[in-house]
Amino acid sequence: MPLYCFYCRDGELNTELRERHLKAQREFMAAHNENYRVAGPLTNAKGEFVGSLLIIEAEDETAARATVNDDPYLTGGVWQSIRVDRFEPLKGRWKEG
């Protein structure tokens, strides 16, 4: 099944908004666990959150976007912008868990 990479960049007030929506966002991800191949925060050199990287497994881009459309970090304003591209892994390891 195809994979789609979501490169999500945080906006202003990201620290406050991440904190506010963290519990709901983790619950959302758990409820849609079967769609996520990889998900995690992006940080800058200072260790501050600047975004998230999600790799979603779905039939097509529309279905992948449907998974992310209701994510509390999107609906709650944490992410300012999202870039979506199809991802075709050639090599590497995935962290299980």
Quick one: CATH class?
A: Alpha Beta
Count of individual beta strands: 4
The helix count comes to 3
Let me know the CATH homologous superfamily. Answer: Dimeric alpha+beta barrel
Overall 3D form: globular
Question: pLDDT average, as an integer?
Answer: 93
What strand line-up does the widest sheet have?
Answer: 2-3-1-4
Helical amount among residues, as a percent range? 25-40%
Order of helices and strands: EHEEHHE
- Which regions have little confidence, pLDDT < 50, spanning 5+ residues? none
What is the CA–CA distance across the termini?
20 Å
Overview of the molecule:
- This protein is of the alpha+beta class and 97 residues long.
- It has a single domain (3-87), classed as Dimeric alpha+beta barrel (Alpha-Beta Plaits), CATH 3.30.70.
- Helix content is 32%, strand content 35%.
- It contains 3 helices and 4 strands, in the order βαββααβ.
- Strands 2-3-1-4 form a 4-stranded antiparallel beta sheet.
- Strand 2 (36-43) and strand 3 form a beta hairpin.
- The longest helix is centred in the N-terminal third of the chain and has 18 residues, at 14-31.
- It is globular.
